[in-house]
Design goal:
It is a single chain. The chain is 41% helix and 14% strand. The protein contains eight helices and seven strands. Strands 3-2-1-4-5-6-7 form a seven-stranded parallel β-sheet, with helices on both faces. α1 packs across α7 (221-232), α3 (69-79) runs parallel beside α4 (110-138) and α4 (110-138) runs parallel beside α5 (158-177). The longest helix has 29 residues, at 110-138. The chain starts with 9 loop residues before the first strand and ends in a 6-residue tail after the last helix. The protein binds NADP nicotinamide-adenine-dinucleotide phosphate (NAP).
């Protein structure tokens, strides 16, 4: 995109209807971006978010199961439509959508791994390929939301850890291959507490996690959103992974990411 274009930049946030994705959408809109909000099952939260935000800032809601190739194709075609609301422009892709499947390794099957990889690795890589021409045209960038569990194993989440490790590698590989498109990642620690039965607010699991975090608290989705905003506007930063974990990995002696 040429330097004379003063229209607000355009971002897509996958899984933008709830939790971390919603915080990223809010932060981008607050910073003057126009945003496509992708969702899958969270239809009502996404609609309610869109109603709440400045209508000029919301280009539209776009639904789809990103683990399914045909749905990804439909989502991409909708966004890249020359006569659509953004004229096919895209300046920022935030690959936020992901599953978080728990299961003891020996009890899981190949199809469980394949399902997790489809959502957490194949889908974001596929979107990077599909949107690369538009991002090249706009001198845009990509932010992949990975997970510190991609560097330091989280027991009973093997499939998730492997997928996120793959996405972090794809971030670095594509920073080289897709330049001048910038490709970065944010690796959250615990920033939005899971809502399943194993993870109650008062659970021993939560207390044990807080104890491991030097900053003494669980993070927030806004902590991740701030990192995304930074990377979206950091012109000499690519191939980087910004850890947003309150120091948890540093305290473990970790050197990766
Ligand atoms: N929460 C944390 O503490 C934490 C820690 C480390 C990393 N992260 C990463 O941060 C990101 C957001 O985390 P979160 O806790 O907000 O996640 P979440 O509450 O589990 O929400 C997952 C999001 O991904 C979307 N999604 C899941 N499967 C999908 C599919 N097949 N097709 C399309 N969309 C799909 C969901 O859309 P719908 O709801 O519309 O179905 C939802 O918006 C993820 O990449 C996660 O791995 C989070």
């Amino acid at each position: 995109m040429d330097g004379e274009d003063s229209t607000p930049r355009v971002a897509l946030v996958t899984g933008g209807g709830i939790r971390v994705g919603q915080a990223i959408v809010r932060a981008l809109v607050g910073a003057g971006w126009r945003v496509w909000i992708h969702h899958h099952r969270s239809i009502e939260p996404a609609q309610s978010l869109a109603r709440e935000l400045d209508p000029d800032a919301v280009l539209g809601l776009v639904a789809g199961d990103l683990s399914v190739a045909a749905e990804r194709t439909r989502v991409c075609a909708h966004l890249l439509d020359d006569v659509g609301p953004a004229g096919g422009r895209l300046d920022l892709l935030v690959n936020n959508a992901a599953s978080f499947e728990r299961g003891e390794f020996l009890a899981r099957q190949d199809r469980d791994l394949e399902r997790v990889l489809a959502t957490n690795l194949v889908a974001p890589v596929s979107l990077m390929r599909s949107f690369a021409p538009a991002l090249l045209h706009s001198a845009g960038s990509i932010v992949n939301i990975v997970d510190v569990a991609g560097f330091h194993p989280l027991r009973d989440y093997l499939d998730h850890c492997v997928a996120k490790a793959g996405l972090e590698m794809a971030t670095r590989a594509l920073a080289v291959e897709l330049a001048p498109i910038r490709v970065n990642a944010v690796a959250p620690g615990t920033v939005a507490w899971p809502t399943d039965a194993h993870h109650g607010e008062d659970s021993p699991a939560r207390a044990a996690v807080v104890k491991q975090i030097p900053l003494g608290r669980i993070g927030t989705p806004q902590d991740v959103a701030r990192a995304v905003l930074y990377l979206a506007d950091a012109p000499f930063v690519t191939g980087s992974c910004l850890r947003v974990d309150g120091g948890r990995i540093a305290a473990m002696g970790g050197s990766r990411a």
